[in-house]
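#lab-general

N.A. 3:47 PM
ok so I finally got the sequence cleaned up, no stray characters, all 798 residues accounted for. can someone with queue access submit it? mine expired

B.Y. 3:52 PM
send it over

N.A. 3:53 PM
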Amino acid sequence: MFSRPRLLTLLIILIAFAARLNTLGDPAFWYDEGLVGWSARLPFLETARWTAADVHPPLYFWAVTMWHWFVGESELALRFLSVSFGLLSVVAVYKIGERLYPLRSAPGRLRRGATLGNLAALFIGLSRFHIWWSQELRMYILGSMFMLFSVWLTLRIAHGTPKRGDWFAYMLVSLAGLLSIYLVAFALAFESLYITALLVLSKINLTQRRTGAQEQNPIGLATLNETMTWRKYVHWVGAQAIVALLFAPWFLYFLTQYRTWSDSTPFDFKLFVQFYATLLAIGAPSNIDAWLVPMLVVWAVLIVGALLGLRGRQREASARGGWLIVMLLVLPPLTVYLGTSPRSFFYTPRVEARYLFPFIWSFYLVLGWCVWRIMRAQRIVGALAAAAVLALMGASDQQYYASRAPSDVYQSLTAMLRAYRQPNDGVLLHDDRTWPIFEFYFGTPNKIWKGVPNGSKIKESDADFILSDFWNQHDGVWMVWNEDALRIDEQHVLEHWLAERAAVEIDNSFGNKRLMFYARTAQRALSVKSLALVKPTYVTNQFVTGDVTLLGFDQAIRSYHIGDDAALGMYWQNRGSKDVELSIGLNAGSTIQFVDRLLIAPGTSRTLTHFVARADMPAHAQLIVFTGERGPLNAFSEIAIAQPDALSDQPDVNIQTAREVRFDMGIRLVGYDADFTNVHAGDTVQLTLYWQSDQPIEQRYKAFVHVLGAQYNPKSKNFLWGQQDQEPGNGALPTTAWSVSRIVSDPYLFRITPDAAAGHYVVELGWYHPMSGERLSVLSSDGAALGDHVNLFEFDVQ
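B.Y. 4:20 PM
back already:
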C-alpha cells in the first residue's frame, strides 16, 4: 500500500503528465523541430556528422530516430518522447527534494523530505517553462533530465555510502548528459567543486573536533563529520576521468567538424537578470515587462522563505546538498551569459531561453524549500503563498496553451505536391530558409528539391544562373513560394523567368504560401491535371452519386481560428462520361452553409477547396458533400472554428495619440502609443498601433513599420535603420479575423540599428499583400490615393 505522501506524489506526477499532453500535437513543427524530424530519417553515422557540424551532440537525435521507427512521424507521436523525458525530470526533482533530508532517521524526517519533494515536483510540474520544453522536439529536455539524475547521484555519493552501482550509474548518466547537450559540462564542473568543498570542510571539521573546538560551521556543514573521505574523493576523481575519456572521442570529432560563428549583439546584464528571473518564476520568454508584478510576487515568496530558513535551526537541507542546488541555480546561468558575450572565436550564440532551460529545475527545488519553510513558521500563510505561486503559474500556462493553435504550415501544400508531381518534375523551394519544415512535411526519401538560397536580393541577371540548368533538366518545375521569398525577390524575378518559358502555368495559394507549376514541354502541359499518386491522408471510399465516389481527402488540421485559411484536398472517382457538379458545405444541425462548388471530371481526380474561416460560420460543423441545392448530404469530416483569444474580449482602449489614416480595403489607423523621447542607437523601442476596419476584409495583409534616417545605411543598402513587418498581433489577429468597427491593438517591438548615427529619424507605416508585395494605398477623405505609406511621427536618436 502507498503511504499518503506517496499517493500525493503519484497525483502530482499525473498532473504534470496531463499538463504536458495538453495541446501536444496541435502546433505544426517549427524550424528546429522540423530539423529533428528530418534527421530522424537519416542513418546514425550521417546524423552524427550533421550534428557535429551543427554544434550539437547526437544522443537525442539518435533517440528520436529509434523512437520514430515504432510510433511514426506525427507531431504528437514524436513530441511524446520529450514528454517522457520531462516527466522523468519531475520524478528526479522529487527524489532530490526528498533526499535533502535524512531518510533513515525518524519517521518525521521522511515526511519532511517527501513534503519538500512534492512541493518542488508540483512547481516544476506546472511550470510553463518546463512544460514548454517538455513539448519541444529538441534535445534540451533530455540534457536537463540527465543533469538532474547526475545531481541526484552526486548527493547519494557525497552524503552516503555509495555502492558500485551508484558510481556506474553516475558515470553513465553524466556521459549521456554530455552526449545530449554540452551545457551539462557546467553541472559536472560545479558538482566537482561541491565535492571538493565537502572534502575541505570535512577535514576542517575533523581538525576542530580533535582540537576540542566547539564552534560549528555556520552553514550547517559541521554535521558532515567524515562523510567525505579521501578514498571517496579519489573515486570521484576517477569517475570524472572515465567520463572525460569516454566523451573525448566524440569531442575531438566535434572539434574537426563544427562551424564557428559569433553574434555581435551584446545583451544588457540588467535585462538578462530580469529575463532569467521571469523565465524561472513565470516561464514567459517575451513581453517580460507585462509579467513584472507576478514575477516579483513569486520571488518575494522565495526570499521570505529563504530568510526564515536561514535563521532556523534545521540545517539538514544545506548539509545534504542544498548549497549545490543554489550553486546550480546561480553560477551556470552566469557562465552562459558570459559565454554569449560577443567575440570572434569559437561558437557565440545569442542569449536565449533554451540555453538557460537545463538549469531551471534548481529554482523549483529552492522555491519548494522556501515555501515549506513558510509553512513550518505559519501553516496558513505558507498555504496561501503556495496557492499564489500556483495561481500565477496557472495564468502563465493558460497564455502558453492559447498560443499553441493548430497551424497548416506546409501540410496542405506538400500533399498537393505529392499528388501531382511526376517523376521528371523538379521542385524549387523559394527561398530555402524554412527548408527543414518543408523537407519534413514533404516526406520524400531523397532530397529531390533545389533551394533558392536565403541571402542577398535577386536581380534579373541572377535568374539564368539560378534556374537555367534546373529548368532544362526537368519536364516541369514546381515552385514552392513562401513568405521569405518576397524579401529577397521583391520583383518576382524567378516567377517571371519561369512564366516566360512555360507552356502552362498553374498557381495555387495556401495561406501565405503558394505552389506554382510551370510545364516546360508540350507533353507535360497536357498532363498537368494527371495524378501521380492517389494516396489521401484519410481514406473514405464514400459513394456520393451513382457514378461518383469520394476516395478520400487531405485535411491538415480540423481546428481553425476566425481568419485562418482552410484548404481541403479531395480525391474523386467518376465512373461516368460527363462532369458531375457537387457542392461542399458546412452542416451544423438545421443550417447548411455553402463553401465551394466543384466539377468532378471523369476518371480519378483531385480537387482543392479553399475558404476563410469567418465569424458567421458555425463553431462546430460537419464537412459535407451534396448535389443540387441540397440533395443527399454526405458527411466526411468535421471542422471547428474558434475566435482568436486576442479577440475574445473587447479591450478597454486608452489611445495615447489619436491619428486617423485611411488605407485601401477598409483598413483605418485610429491612433498609436509610443514613447521615443530618449532613444539611443541599439535601443529596443515599442510602438502600439490601433486599427479599425470599415468593411469585412477577405485577404490577409501585413503592416510594415520602418525607421528611416537622413543618412544612407550601407548594411541595408537604403535609409532604413529599424524595421518590423508583421500581421497584426504578430499573426494572432489577421485582417481576415477583424470585426467591422472593432478596435484592434497591434504591438510592435523592434530595435534601432546599433550603428545608427545621432540625428533626426521618421517612423513610416504602411500595408502590403504578403504574397505579391503590392502595397495598399493611403486614401484621402474622399477616397483619392495619396501614396503607399504614411509618415507617422518623427523623433531623434541621441
